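Worked example

This section walks through a single chain of length 295. The input is the sequence exactly as stored; nothing has been trimmed or padded.
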Amino acid sequence: MPKANVPEPGLPEPDLPEPVPSKPVEDDRTSMHPSALKRAFVDHLKFSRRQQLGNATPLDEYFALALCIRDRLVDRWTATENHYRAKQAKRICYLSAEFLTGRALVSNLQALDIESHFRAVLGRLNIELDQLIEQEPEPGLGNGGLGRLAACFMESMATIGLPATGYGIRYEFGIFEQVIRRGQQIERSDEWLRFGNPWEMVRPEHTVEVRFGGSTQHVPTADGFRVHWTPQLSVIGVPHDIPIAGYRNNCVNPLRLWRARSGSEFDFQLFNAGDYVSAVERKNASEVISKVLYP
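Given that input, the structure is written out below as tokens.
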């Protein structure tokens, strides 16, 4: 496979961030040196999962490994963002209802060119990398061509160094899981976020309010009138950022997915009156937006 930063004939040279400078192992928590990778894995196992080697589950080990890789992505993500700002680069905003990204662990290992490094490091700890790869669920963020195309665009733009940000919805449940019991198909919700997502970074400080429905009234003024809008429903959008890495070129772009949260948790008056279902009706109506892919 050709290097990602070599342009096709006729295309302009990509403008990529400089490689992240290497530092002595003892001074750099995101070094690619095997000793630093081992230390980072053991530290995340202990401090992020409160586990120790020998008694950790494969799920704990997967999370520790994912966080090790995310640290290295964040280092390059910051350098990429600084590069864009220094260049005053125009930004591409790619909006899609779906992003079928697939499992992130293998793709990020390959993008950073450290799969063999971690395989060797984990092997010395008697841990099979392939077993940890199987712990990651398929993200329930898309289904079919639309989602796959969007994910490919994001990966391609990062690989050629285009300053791009993807925007979509952080679905809590995927389309469905299929189970066959007694010869019958049973559909159930795809709880892909059951154990959390180590790749995402929630950014509550960047929440936005979106209002829907309601009514308008004409309010008299000295110059005539103005229109006052009273919305029926208020939804809070909470962003979750996921790094999208280019192929071995130090470029990392963000995918920002929004989770819907109610503007008010429940109606306190209805709750006091004992009408518990109606008290949370508005909350449920708000949060259903990001609840299920294709409801």
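What to look for: Confidence is low (pLDDT under 50) at residues 1-7, 21-27.
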